[in-house]
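note to self — DONT lose this again. spent like an hour looking for the file last time. sequence + predicted structure for the chain T wanted, 177 res
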Amino acid sequence: MAVRNVPADSRAYEALATQVYSPVKDLIHSTEAIKQGIAAGADPFPLYQSLALAAQSAGNLSVAEIAQEQALQIRPNDADGIARLARIFMAEYKFGEASSHFQRVTEINPDSAPAFFDLANAQASAFQFYAAEQSFRRAIRLQPDNQWYRQRYSEFQKRLGSAGTPSELSYQDHAEG
């Protein structure tokens, strides 16, 4: 396997990893393409992100997590990269870690409704009900016409049902506060 045209251009290696090898779940060759790109001097940030995507596609979440963390070592405040890692944590059922990473995304992009929506879902999964309610509300305030956000918030409220209000149910928010 060799990329000969523009060896320092990360796009060719990204394409090999995500469009050629990833659909057939060939993580070994995806990894080799990424290593070759880094050795050729291509920007490692998108390469590690491509490897994370290929690993997710292959069902190897631990490799995806490691690759995305390597990308974030290069650009630690990249909101998209942080959100990608948070989604990997969600897939691994690491809801507390996902929640803290989505929280970072909202700090970087305080006017991003999708960031608050993702945060709300992670918080709800981590049993941080009061915080989840606040995050759902913030997402809806930022995008009041988004019916998907309204529907998910309504479902969240129904799941809580008669168990109590979110402020009564949340114990982590006050303990971490």
